[in-house]
Design goal:
Layout: H1 7-19, H2 24-29, H3 44-50, H4 56-64, E1 70-71, H5 72-76, H6 83-90, E2 94-96, E3 99-101, E4 105-109, E5 112-116, H7 120-123, H8 135-143, E6 152-155, H9 161-167, E7 173-177, H10 180-192, E8 198-202, E9 214-219, H11 242-251, E10 255-270, H12 275-283, E11 288-298, H13 300-311, H14 318-331, E12 334-346, E13 353-357, H15 367-382, H16 386-390, E14 395-396, E15 400-409, E16 412-422, E17 429-432, H17 434-441, H18 449-460, H19 464-481, E18 484-485
Parallel strand pairs: 6-7, 6-9, 7-8, 9-10, 11-13
Antiparallel strand pairs: 1-3, 2-3, 4-5, 10-12, 11-12, 14-18, 15-16, 16-17
């Protein structure tokens, strides 16, 4: 466990580490972010060679990135005199004879430094491992709605990255975890980064915040669907996907009106039950609108192989473990395992649930796109009649692009198709006919839909009633998808 850090020591320590080049930008420059030291990759000798020069930064990298012990006298000579005594008192370093070892990894993300465990602890199958930021951490961060929040909950905080990101736009952040080691690391990380609006609590699920409500709850829970609880950070302690279901069912009781719950999850598809029905049951009668985006699907055999490879370093025992996974799935008649994200918003009244599949995850943040999607559905609900929608003055999003595709024919290029695409946020697109594209070009936010439709009907010389119906349908669809803003 790490020891409490004072604000003064935190500032001195953080300023020194960042000033020495222990930053995400510098590690990316040196290509450290492309891979972590791993027994699976057999990359340790190469990383040791790259840090062999005796410099201040290499000393820090060997301790806090690679987890390599170093000679106490040699390393101390490269650092300020106060650093080693302070690091020893905090538990960042440990004396072992003439060697100094770092039991903790310091992981730089953007302008933050996070305390987590070295990769060697996953090789040792430590059940209380606190994982470093990984692709799921990044996905949840990109997915999160970044609007001002009076109170935010990071449910299952792990290394604390979501809490740190939320602290920037939240008055108060509560970070909880079942693993006391994760709570300890997150508390240390909050102080190290000069954030005084994060409170860290240990406990199961929502129990530590039983009487509290939030404007935003985010969770990257242990969602692996596995037969055993090897690691707290990833293995679902309940049968199949029931932990994710539990969080969905309980979250609404901890949301303020208009508050969001955003969850990364996996769910099983069981024989005789479409996967959509399983997730719909989770969301029924929660008092929340819900948007489910399903990503990848794996069959049980493929899933078992991937999960074993991710969490077990040695191939010894793979056959027995694989057999246990498959027996677990067969007994429960699991046909497939799906992953995805769920966004819920607490709202009084009749709620809606939208379930969709996506093939591409945005590379950039798309939390604002999520918030706008909920707002768009509110707008369409408030403008349900044709008369209300005809008075609206829509405008095309600046993120729209119209793509023209051609194909060869008769010795020249022939127009083949038109596609309207969003270049930011979720990768939505719709196919259009050329006259409809012309109709949409008039959506500048200055003219009502009624005028646009009248002009369009005149240009195409089509029955007014038919044009009216088709154009209103297109306008509704494009508002819902974020192509048109109102």
């Amino acid at each position: 466990m790490l020891q409490p850090l004072t604000a003064i020591d935190a500032t001195r320590l953080r300023d020194f580490l960042l000033g020495a080049g222990y930053t995400e930008a510098e590690l990316r420059k040196q290509q450290y972010f492309s891979e972590l030291p791993s027994s699976r990759l057999r990359n340790f000798p190469r990383l040791l060679d790259r840090t062999s020069d005796r410099t201040c930064l290499n000393t820090l990298l060997r301790w806090f990135w690679l987890g390599v012990p170093q000679d106490a006298t040699d390393s101390a000579n490269l650092l300020p005199g106060w650093f080693v005594p302070l690091a020893l008192s905090l538990g960042l370093l440990r004396q072992d004879g003439s060697q100094l070892a770092a039991p903790v990894m310091l992981f730089p993300v953007k302008d933050f430094l996070l305390a987590c465990d070295h990769t060697s602890r996953i090789d040792a199958c430590d059940p209380e491992l606190v994982l470093w930021p990984n692709p799921t951490s990044k996905l949840l961060s990109q997915f999160t709605v970044r609007r001002k929040s009076r109170a935010t909950l990071d449910l299952g905080t792990g290394n604390g990255i979501q809490a740190l990101m939320a602290a920037v736009h939240s008055e108060k952040v509560i970070a909880t975890d079942l693993n006391p080691r994760a709570v300890n690391f997150t508390q240390f990380t909050a102080v190290l980064n000069g954030l005084d609006n994060i409170e860290c609590l240990a406990g199961d699920g929502f129990a530590p915040v039983a009487q509290r409500k939030f404007d935003l709850i985010v969770s990257n829970p242990p969602f692996f669907i596995s037969p055993g609880g090897r690691y707290l950070f990833c293995d679902n302690p309940m049968d199949l996907d029931q932990l994710c279901r539990r969080f969905v069912r309980e979250a609404s009781g901890h949301l303020n009106e208009g508050g969001y719950f955003q969850l990364l999850c996996e769910w099983a598809e069981v024989r005789g039950q479409p996967w959509q029905e399983r997730v719909t049951e989770w969301l029924k009668d929660t008092g929340c609108d819900a948007w489910v985006l399903k990503g990848h699907t794996q069959d049980p055999a493929e899933y078992a192989q991937h999960r074993i490879a991710e969490t077990v370093a040695s191939p010894e025992g793979d056959a027995q473990m694989y057999a246990e996974y498959l027996a677990y799935y067969r007994e429960r008649e699991v046909q497939a395992i799906h992953d995805g994200v769920i966004a819920m918003r607490r709202r009084s009244g009749q709620n809606w649930t939208l379930i969709e599949e996506i093939t591409d995850i945005p590379k950039d943040a798309f939390g604002e796109c999520v918030a706008q999607a909920f707002t768009a559905r509110d707008f369409l609900r408030e403008h349900a009649s044709d008369e209300q929608l005809l008075a609206v003055k829509p405008r095309l999003s600046s993120d729209c692009r119209l793509e023209q595709f051609f194909q060869p024919g008769d010795g020249q290029w022939q127009p083949a198709s038109l596609t309207l695409r969003l270049v930011k946020g979720l990768p939505f697109f719709v196919g259009l006919q050329a006259p409809v594209a012309g109709f949409l070009s008039g959506c500048t936010g200055t003219r009502p839909v009624s005028e646009l439709i009248a002009d369009f009907a005149h240009r195409v010389d089509a029955p007014a009633e038919r044009v009216h119906v088709e154009c209103l349908g297109i306008v509704r669809k494009l508002i819902e998808r974020g192509f048109l803003l109102c």
